[in-house]
């Protein structure tokens, strides 16, 4: 249904309570920015269509607070911001 939204990648996550999916036009972190993305415990998942302009500064702040990242994408930064400040 949303194939036209992104020709470069597709992904989904599903468990007993929720399912999320995406199509991607790769712009940032082309090689490892696959979505959906999750935190270290795999208990928070996200798909995101947008751009976080200050994600590198946010990532540096979060790394100093002990967060570990497995991609270079702005999407993953959102997960860790949620963990840290919500």
Main sheet summary: 2 strands, antiparallel
Share of helix, binned? 25-40%
Strand order of the largest sheet: 1-2
Mean pLDDT reading:
87
Count of helix runs: 2
The CATH topology corresponds to Glutamine Phosphoribosylpyrophosphate, subunit 1, domain 1
Measured distance between first and last alpha carbons = 33 Å
Give the low-pLDDT segments: none
What report would you give on this structure?
- The protein is α+β, with helices and mostly antiparallel strands and about 90 residues long.
- It has a single domain (about 5-85), classed as Aminohydrolase, N-terminal nucleophile (Ntn) domain (Glutamine Phosphoribosylpyrophosphate, subunit 1, domain 1, 4-Layer Sandwich).
- About 25% of the residues lie in helices and about 20% in strands.
- It contains 2 helices and 4 strands.
- Strands 1-2 form a two-stranded antiparallel sheet. A two-stranded antiparallel sheet has the order 3-4.
- The termini are far apart.
- The model has no long low-confidence stretch (mean pLDDT about 85).
- Pfam families: GATase_6.
- It comes from marine sediment metagenome.
- This is Glutamine amidotransferase type-2 domain-containing protein.
Question: Could you outline the blueprint of secondary structure elements for this entry?
Answer:
Elements lengths: L8 E6 L4 E6 L12 E2 L6 E2 L8 H10 L9 H12 L1
Antiparallel strand pairs: 1-2, 3-4
Helix pairs in contact: 1-2
Protein name: Glutamine amidotransferase type-2 domain-containing protein
Pfam families: GATase_6
Organism: marine sediment metagenome
């Amino acid at each position: 249904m949303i194939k036209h939204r992104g020709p470069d990648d597709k992904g989904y996550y599903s468990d007993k309570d929720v399912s999320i999916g995406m199509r991607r036009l790769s712009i940032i972190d082309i090689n490892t920015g696959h979505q959906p993305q999750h935190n270290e415990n795999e208990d928070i998942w996200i798909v995101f269509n947008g751009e976080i302009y200050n994600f590198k500064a946010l990532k540096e702040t979060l790394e100093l607070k002990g967060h570990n990242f497995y991609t270079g994408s702005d999407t993953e930064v959102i997960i860790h911001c949620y963990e840290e400040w919500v």
